[in-house]
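Quick question, first post here. What does this chain look like in 3D?
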Amino acid sequence: MSKKKIWVINFFAGTPDSGWGERHFFLAKKWIELGYDVEIISSSYNHMFKNLPEEKGEFTRESYDGIPFIWVKTPKYHSESLKRFWSMLVFTWKVLKLAKMIDNKPDTIIVSSMPLFPIWTGIRLKRKWKAKLIFEIRDIWPLTLIQLGKKSPWHPAVLFLGFFEKIGYRKADSVVSLLPNARAHIEKIAKKKVDFHYLPNGIDESLQVKEPLPKSTIEKIPTNKFIVGYTGTIGLANAMNYFMEALEILKEQADIHFVLVGDGYLKKDYMEQSKDFGNITFIDKIPKNQVQSVLELFDVCFVGWHKTPLYLSGVSANKYFDYMLSGKPILSSNQHIKDPVELSGCGILVEAENPLKIVEGILKLQKMTEDERLVLGQKGREYVLKNHTMSQLAEKYAQIF
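> Answer (accepted):
Ran it through. Tokens below.
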């Protein structure tokens, strides 16, 4: 009996070497252990990758640590340009073209957003191959454009994305969401009951083996200060503007040092804004397997969100699980959205979009004893190992297949 074959269509899917989008790589490793054949179809270019795959034509096959990838050649673009959407549309069309070259059809097709456009390809292939179609929602689009991008519900981009969102919810056999409370929104758009499954982000057990940081990186982080750290994208969606306002309030606090690890379109602005601060260090994005090594140097980790109905559906940022695995307490700035910090009790919650409350939270954590912070951090580590390992998530996912 032949193995069941799974296709993952994800414009942003990457390898640990890519520096972004490793979710399906780690899930695929577990699915293969469970006896499935898996192929990940991704774009040859996206602005989130630190390292791009090598192109060898329109479609490039690569096996990375035993996981088969097909890199679809797509146009390069700037993250804020309209060409980004064009690149996503080219990917959508080329995956359909790729399908005509495949003899061994998949039994299950997973289309992961963003972008939403490839769900059209998924629906076409579902009909052609009689395959099961799973639509995976990582963020809710186009609602994100409306709530965070301040676009009108009648904006052309919102209407265009909304078309793909609706047909995806309606035509998929199952909808998987990384957001725990997304069912209500999905069924409102679909105007029917859907086969909904909550399958959040998580951590791969291999991340517990920490790759050492380069000496040059270690030397940038003070050893005699209270270190408040952040890892991830430095952009608007992460409410970093309020964090930066809090840092400005504390810029004369010599015993506290802030370390921001990552890249993003606001990074240069924030570096300019804080050039006179004496207690902030920016570090470029590091490989995934070095994240635990840098978190080990922090005393507290920060995560922030905006005040918006968008997050009432829940959040599932990878940084939560990286932070929790490290055993460090977390300062979470949100509107009580039942995030992993609140659910596990591994840190302090403060009001969203309020720099003064962020400052209060930082000072409260600083005043705690090391043992008190250790207790908080251990709650997070125990929670993530119990609820968010890739082995657990892959097995739950496979039940949908």
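The mean pLDDT is 91.
The chain is about 40% helix and 20% strand.
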